[in-house]
């Protein structure tokens, strides 16, 4: 996932208006988060980056469902990691598409 994220970051740097590049970067970051490749201490930074790029992909291609679904998957995965019931409910609420 790290290599994929690096490659997609290069694509975003080369063409910041590419919805596909932002989507690919967001998805590669989200898969690392969901697969727990990202250390929990780094979760917030990785989540923020993934959300940023998926939101940008969605802005650039408003009819694309993949970025929205990936954002939902991130929230659901993070909800599963929460011990606090209110935090869990909040994450699941955000996960609803």
Characterization of this structure:
This protein is mainly α and 97 residues long. The chain has a single domain, classed as Alpha Horseshoe (Serine Threonine Protein Phosphatase 5, Tetratricopeptide repeat). Helix 1 runs antiparallel to helix 2 (19-34), helix 3 (43-60) packs antiparallel against helix 4 (66-81) and helix 4 runs antiparallel to helix 5 (85-95). The chain has helices spanning 2-14, 19-34, 43-60, 66-81, 85-95.
What attributes characterize this protein structure?
Serine Threonine Protein Phosphatase 5, Tetratricopeptide repeat; 97 residues; single chain; mainly alpha
Domain count, please report it.
1
Q: How big is the Rg?
A: 13 Å
Series of secondary-structure elements, N-terminal to C-terminal: HHHHH
Mean pLDDT comes to 89
How much of the polypeptide forms β-strand, as a percent range?
A: under 5%
Please outline the major beta sheet. Answer: none
Helicity range of the residues? Answer: over 70%
Tell me the CATH architecture: Alpha Horseshoe
